[in-house]
Every structure is written in C-alpha cells, then in structure tokens.
Write a structure and sequence with these properties.
The structure is a single chain. The chain has 395 residues and is α/β, with parallel strands linked by helices. Helix content is 35%, strand content 29%. The protein has helices at residues 15-26, 39-44, 53-61, 66-71, 91-94, 105-118, 239-249, 301-322, 326-329, 331-353, 361-376, 378-389, and strands at residues 2-5, 8-11, 31-34, 50-51, 73-75, 78-82, 85-89, 100-102, 122-124, 128-133, 141-146, 149-154, 157-160, 178-194, 202-205, 212-218, 221-228, 263-277, 280-281, 284-286, 292-293. The strands form 4 sheets. It has an 8-stranded mixed β-sheet. It has a 6-stranded mixed β-sheet with strand order 9-3-2-13-20-19, with helices on one face. The chain is globular and about 65 Å long. Bound molecules: 8-demethyl-8-dimethylamino-flavin-adenine-dinucleotide and P-hydroxybenzoic acid (PHB). 8-demethyl-8-dimethylamino-flavin-adenine-dinucleotide binds next to helix 1 and helix 8.
Length: 395
C-alpha cells in the first residue's frame, strides 16, 4: 500500500480543483489532485463557454491566460431577442468596461492541467474508490485505488471539488447539511455546429415555443441550445428539426437567418438549482458544483466554482502561514453570499426566458413586461449586466 503526504488533498480535476491547485502553488502550498476520469476525457468533455471578467483576470494573474487571449473572444454585449426584435445589452458600457470571454471550459482545463504538470505538481487521473476518513481531525485521510493498488494520502485539509455527482459531500453527516433545490420542468438541447457565427454576440431568445440561445466557440464552430422537454429523447431530434426550431424561435421582423452547417454533437442537459449549506465540515471544504448547481441560463457554474476556490486558497494560505483559522471559518458564509446572488440571477434569467408548462396568459404577460423593462430601463439593463459580467470574488 502506498502512503503519501500533502497539505491539501483535492478531489476532482474540474475547474474548481485545478484552479485551487494553482492558487495554492502561488502561495507555496502543496497539493495533490485526484481525478476519476482520464486526462483525455477531462480535456474533451464539452461544457461551459462563458468566462466572467474576474475569471479572465485570474487566468492572467496565474499565467494561464495566453491561449484564452489568442483563441477566445472578448464580448462586450449580449442580445435579448423577443417578439421578433433584438435588443443589445451593452455589458461594458453599463459596467465600467467589464466584459466576458467566450472560451470553452475544456480549453481552460487543458491550460490548467498543462501548467500544473509543467510545474511538477501531481494530478492522478483514472483513480477510483475515493474514501475520506478522519475529516474532523487535524490529519484527514483520503484513500483510493490507483492502477489496482490501494493508496492513502494524509493531509491537513481536503478540498471536495468533485462536482455534483461526487463523493466528498457524502462524507458529511446528512444531519449537518441542509440542501435547497429547484428542478425546472424542461431541459436544454445543446449542439455544436461547424458553421461561421450567426451573430457577433450571444443571443438569448424568448419565443412562445420556448427559449433559444446562440453562442460560439470559434470562427468555425458554433454552440446553440434550445429549451426541450425534461424527458426528451435526443434520438427523436434530427439535426434538421433542431436547426428549424432554432430559426423559428429566433425569427426577426427583418429576416435574420441562422447560418447552418454539419452538427457534430448533441446532448440534453438538465436544468436545476441546488445549494448545500454549509460548505464546510471539519477539515473538508466543498467548492464548485459539489456544493451548488445553477441552471445554465446565466452562464455561471464554472465562474462560481472559481470564486469558491479563490476564497478557499486565501483561507488555507492564512492558516498555513499565520496559523489563523479566521478566513477558513468564514469560508462558507463568504461563498454563500455570492452563491445565493448567483442562484437568484440564474433563476431570474431562467424564469424570464423560458416557457413553463403551467404558464397562463397572465404569467406570459408578466414575462413580456419583465423583458421589456429589462431592455428599456437603464437601471434594469445595468442590473443584468453587472450580474452577467460577474461580481468581484470578494463581493
Ligand atoms: P466539475 O467540472 O463537475 O468537476 C468535477 C470533477 O470531479 C471528478 N470527480 C471525481 N474525481 C475523483 N473521485 C470521484 N469520486 C469523483 N467524482 C467526480 C469529475 O470527473 C470531474 O472532473 O465541477 P467543478 O470543478 O465544480 O466545475 C463546475 C463547472 O464544471 C460547471 O458549473 C459548469 O460547466 C456549468 N456550466 C457553465 N458554467 C459557466 O460558468 N458558464 C457557462 O457558460 C456554462 N455553461 C455549464 C454550461 C454546464 C453545462 N452542463 C453540461 C451541465 C453549459 C452546460 C451545457
Ligand atoms: C455556452 O456557450 O455553452 C453557453 C453560453 C451561455 C450560457 C450557457 C452556455 O448561458
């Protein structure tokens, strides 16, 4: 049996886990990252695409922003489209110049993995059977299997960065956690399509047939979503039907056309909101999707994961260098303030832009009024913009 030691044992090589290992390294703190999937799978799974200003800035600070600047694109506005017309929200103009970047999550992960490995830090891919013990003692243990061998890591802290389906949260007694959740009665059908961009900026469309979103990955590859039934079978949707539905929901009075090409991937994503409180138990700290989920409408999940580990790295550094646990004790409270702000924003965007099965005529008129107010009032547009580009991590 192998035995190892490190200061922070990080479970999960998603955005939360990999950012955390880099943030800790900057403070001179050692960590080991444990990941159940292969490196190839981590580097090719298609997920998020929108980086907040603060995430972009942190990538630069950590020296991993070079490819993002070269291959990603900075966007300074988004469009809300309804009733056959588009309305631009001037993100930068309304937020003192802040913006977002379109750069795929798996590209971010490639950059983070490369930086970690280049600097000689350990990431164990393809491990299994992770178990935590002694998490209320000063020396928690992580056991797992690597190449069929049992391995034990003894550490000072464990970071649970293993996503919504991870195991670290389960190490906390259920009686010590409270979970708040909402499941939305629809899903998103997402595609990747080889085509030039149909728009210079993202389009969030509301139509009585349902929500539609036009996003992008690069000048040759586009990302689009349509609201679908939660129980929909992806096989029922032909490529032609998806593209037709996108065009129908995004129609404008002045004849906007979707630019089409071969569809190279299609998946259905569930839409839900979940928050688990508190985000800490003993020496285990939860971060990212392991502690909370937001529906994808606000493009927030990855960004929220990064703001959690920004707080966590500061708390761990303070403890390691000054033997003070104050920032660790306030970790959960600090994170949850931003988490709930983001939960509200994501729920609000979702409610404003989707058709719900129990909508009546009154509800639909309220929604239209909310959309009109959002694009016509500077105060309402500013609120959307400041949430969309993201509050500072220490908000
Ligand atoms: P992740 O990314 O799920 O990473 C967790 C990692 O832990 C591993 N793991 C384990 N490892 C070892 N042992 C175990 N027992 C383990 N169990 C799990 C997993 O294999 C995985 O590698 O969580 P993290 O780091 O908290 O990051 C969260 C983000 O990935 C997520 O919130 C975003 O992708 C959400 N999201 C979006 N967020 C944005 O900020 N902007 C967006 O534009 C955006 N679009 C999206 C999205 C998520 C989507 N899907 C598919 C849910 C669009 C979509 C379609
Ligand atoms: C994406 O490009 O995948 C994307 C963009 C905006 C969202 C969600 C996902 O709100």
């Amino acid at each position: 049996m192998d035995q190892m030691n490190t200061y922070v044992g990080i479970v999960g090589a998603g955005p939360a886990g990999l950012f955390l290992s880099l943030l800790l390294a900057r403070e001179g703190i050692g960590s080991i990252v444990l990941e159940c999937r292969s490196r190839e799978e981590v580097e090719t799974t298609i997920r998020a695409g929108v980086l907040e200003q603060g995430t972009m800035d942190l990538m630069d600070e950590l020296g991993v922003g070079e490819r993002m600047h070269r291959e990603g694109a900075v966007h300074r506005g988004i469009e809300l489209r309804f009733d056959g017309a588009g309305h631009r929200i001037d993100l930068s103009g309304l937020t003192d110049g802040r913006a977002i970047a379109l750069y795929a999550q798996h590209e971010v992960l490639k950059d983070l993995i490369a930086a970690n490995l280049r600097d000689g830090r350990e990431i164990f891919f393809g491990i299994s059977e992770v178990r935590l013990s002694e998490i209320t003692s000063p020396k928690p243990r992580i056991q797992f299997k690597r190449n069929g061998e049992e391995v034990t890591i003894e550490c000072a802290f464990v970071a649970g960065c293993d996503g919504y389906h991870g195991v670290t949260r389960l190490a906390i007694p259920a009686s010590r956690l409270t979970s708040y959740s909402r499941v939305y009665p629809f899903g998103w059908l997402g595609i990747l399509m080889e085509a030039p961009p149909s728009s210079d900026e993202l389009i969030y469309g509301y139509h009585e047939r349902g929500f539609a979103l036009v996003s992008t990955r690069n000048p040759k590859l586009q990302r689009m979503y349509i609201q679908c039934d939660a129980e929909d079978d992806i096989e029922r949707w032909t490529d032609e039907a998806i593209l037709e539905e996108l065009q129908r929901r995004l129609v404008t009075a002045d004849g906007w056309r979707l630019r089409v090409g071969p569809v190279t991937s299609k998946t259905i994503v569930a839409m839900r909101s979940v928050v688990t409180e508190p985000m800490q138990f003993g020496r285990l700290f939860l971060a990212g999707d392991a502690a909370h989920i937001v529906p994808a409408t606000g493009a927030k999940g990855l960004n929220l994961a990064i703001s959690d580990v920004w707080h966590l790295s500061r708390g761990l550094a303070r403890f390691a260098k000054q033997s003070s646990s104050d920032l660790l004790e306030s970790y959960s409270g600090h994170c949850l303030r931003r988490v709930w702000r983001t939960e509200h924003f994501s729920w609000w965007m979702t409610s404003m832009l989707h058709r719900f099965p129990d909508d009546d005529a009154f509800q639909q008129r309220l929604r239209r009024s909310q959309l009109e107010y959002t694009v016509r009032s500077r105060a309402a547009s500013t609120s959307l913009a400041e949430n969309y580009v993201g509050q500072p991590f220490d908000w």
